[in-house]
Every structure is written in structure tokens, then in C-alpha cells.
């Protein structure tokens, strides 16, 4: 064999083995990296990475520009796919196009991506919660506790901290409102408090405005799309002297935001939360994208996960059962 050919072959083999040694990379992009729910999802995705032997690339994407840059960045790092909870679900077509351009597998988590007409992007598999059903569980939890306290349904104000531009948020809060109405709460008692973002501060501001406008109610129940929304309402009520004896809120999530409240010595008005599974959402989506990219086996098009009502009383046991 001529020396030059031998050398070329050696170099080729070396580059091959280098390539083989590089671990597979999967991205996990989330809209609100500072929120405990997303921290938990990342933690369980890391677990999947460890179990399956890939590298997880975690990137916070608070807006569309950062999101597009993150996808390009993943491609530059030779990632093979990513899981995404986008800052705006209407970016669905842009996400799909960018993923295809870079030959990356993509799956959404929590917030399902939609196209220009508001329809789910068909070729992006999704895992999220069954929003309306979980909302109904929130409503049922509030009703049970109102009953236990002997509150008259027609005298209670219902604060719906709303973020209706996000379909899952709308589903969750409408599920709760429908459960209350079905039990006899007058529709007129339901007060919408639209929040600008899905964090506690925005919910606090939204709730404050709603309380100011509706001073006639002496007792309140509140809910929103997540624990942060419910907590914002609780904090706003406290600021007006409406404490746990006159206010009840149930969130959705069950991560640290709720746990901080449940472990306070004096119970606050955050009565409960519907515990959902960051473990399933984080672990299963990351693992599914890895399998898809490496074996060609596509994830199920749609997986909806369920929840269970958690309160101060059952939190230790429930979190243990859920492996949290
Ligand atoms: C949305 C919310 C998050 C969390 C997830 C759970 O993304 O913004 O706070 O509730 O859904 O699926």
C-alpha cells in the first residue's frame, strides 16, 4: 500500500473512532428556566441521559429570538434532537422548520406547539397534561373544602387567574370554573384576572386589580394554570388582609413553589395543588427523543398525563409515591 494511502486510512480511522467516542447530544429547551417545575423536568431529563448514556444540553429560551439561537446552537454542537417547551406556542411552524433544516428530531413538552391556524403541528409529538381534566380536579378540591367550611357557594368570589393565549392554561382554568359552576357557583361570581406572564409576580398584579374591582366578596377561591398563578393570588389577598380563613387557592404543579407553602408553620391560603409529574415529562420526553434519533422509533404523537390533589396533609406520602 502506498504510504500516502496508508496515512490517509489511519487518519480516517482516527476520525471515525473520535466520532464514535462523542456522546449523542439531546437538547432540552424550556421557556422559564427559573421556575421550579422546569428545574425538576431538567433534573429528570438528566436522569434519562445518565441511564441511556447521552449528553443533555439544557437551554433556557425566554423569547423567540433566544429559541431560534438555541436551536442553531444545538445543530452547531451536532445534537441529534431536542425537547421543547416554547415561550410562545404560535412559534410551532418556526420550530418545525428549524428542526427539519438541521435534521433534528423535535418533541414538545407541557405546551403543545400550534401552526398559524392554531392547530397542533402534526409531526411534532407532544407530552402534556390533560388540562381540562386537571382543572376539574382543582374545582372539585375547592368545592370539597368550601363545603367542609360551610361556605355558601353564591357568596364566594372565584378568581380565575387567566393566561388564555396558552391553550393548556385556558383548558386548565376553564375546567376548574366549569366544575364550580356545575356545582352551583353562579357564573357571575367568576372574576377573570388576566396575567401578562405565567409567573407569581404577574399573577399577583393581576389578582390585585381584580380584588380592587370586586370588594363585595368577603370570601374567595382562586386558581390559575400553575402553582405560581395560585400563589400570586394568595399573596395579593394577604396584602389586603384576606387570609387563610377567607381564601382558598389550589394550584397545579406540586413542585417547590407549593412545597414552600405547605411546610410553613402556619397554613397559608394555598390549600392544595394538583400534583403532576415532572418526572414523566422530563425523563420520558428526553428518552423518547434519544430513542427516536438513534433507533428511528418515533414517540407517540400525543401523551396526556394525569394528576392528583395534594395538600399539606398528604404531601409527604404522595411525593414519595410519585418518586419525587
Ligand atoms: C405550562 C406552565 C408550567 C407548567 C407546565 C406543566 O408550561 O407554564 O408552569 O404548569 O405547563 O405542564
TrEMBL record:
This is Arabinose ABC transporter substrate-binding protein. Residues 25-296 form the Periplasmic binding protein/LacI sugar binding domain. The keyword Signal applies. Belongs to the bacterial solute-binding protein 2 family. The lineage of its organism: Bacteria, Pseudomonadati, Pseudomonadota, Betaproteobacteria, Burkholderiales. It is found in: Periplasm. Residues 1-20 form the signal peptide. CDD domains: PBP1_arabinose_binding. Its main location: periplasm. Keywords: Signal.
Amino acid at each position: 500500500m502506498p504510504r500516502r494511502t496508508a496515512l490517509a486510512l489511519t487518519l480516517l480511522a482516527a476520525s471515525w473512532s473520535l466520532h464514535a467516542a462523542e456522546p449523542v447530544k439531546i437538547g432540552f429547551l424550556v421557556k422559564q428556566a427559573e421556575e421550579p417545575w422546569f428545574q425538576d423536568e431538567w433534573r429528570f431529563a438528566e436522569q434519562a441521559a445518565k441511564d441511556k448514556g447521552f449528553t443533555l444540553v439544557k437551554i433556557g429560551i425566554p423569547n423567540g429570538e433566544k429559541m431560534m439561537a438555541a436551536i442553531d446552537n444545538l445543530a452547531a454542537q451536532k445534537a441529534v434532537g431536542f425537547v421543547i417547551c416554547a415561550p410562545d406556542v404560535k412559534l410551532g411552524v418556526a420550530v418545525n422548520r428549524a428542526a427539519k433544516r438541521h435534521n433534528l428530531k423535535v418533541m414538545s413538552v407541557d405546551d403543545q406547539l400550534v401552526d398559524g391556524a392554531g392547530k397542533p403541528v402534526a409531526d411534532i409529538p407532544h407530552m402534556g397534561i390533560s388540562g381540562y381534566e386537571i382543572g376539574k380536579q382543582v374545582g372539585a378540591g375547592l368545592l370539597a373544602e368550601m363545603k367542609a367550611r360551610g361556605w355558601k357557594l353564591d357568596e364566594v368570589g372565584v378568581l380565575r387567574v387567566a393566561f388564555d393565549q396558552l391553550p393548556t392554561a385556558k383548558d386548565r382554568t376553564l375546567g376548574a370554573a366549569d366544575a364550580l359552576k356545575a356545582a352551583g357557583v353562579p357564573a357571575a361570581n367568576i372574576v377573570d384576572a388576566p396575567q401578562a406572564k405565567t409567573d407569581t409576580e404577574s399573577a399577583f398584579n393581576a389578582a390585585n386589580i381584580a380584588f380592587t374591582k370586586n370588594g363585595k366578596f368577603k370570601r374567595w377561591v382562586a386558581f390559575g394554570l400553575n402553582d405560581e398563578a395560585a400563589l400570586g393570588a394568595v399573596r395579593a389577598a394577604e396584602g389586603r388582609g384576606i387570609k387563610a380563613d377567607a381564601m382558598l387557592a389550589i394550584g397545579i404543579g406540586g413542585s417547590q413553589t407549593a412545597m414552600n407553602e405547605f411546610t410553613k408553620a402556619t397554613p397559608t391560603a394555598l390549600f392544595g395543588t394538583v400534583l403532576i409529574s415532572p418526572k414523566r415529562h422530563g425523563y420520558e420526553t428526553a428518552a423518547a427523543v434519544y430513542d427516536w434519533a438513534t433507533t428511528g422509533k418515533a414517540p407517540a404523537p400525543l401523551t396526556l398525563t394525569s394528576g392528583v390533589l395534594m395538600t399539606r396533609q398528604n404531601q409527604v406520602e404522595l411525593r414519595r409515591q410519585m418518586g419525587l
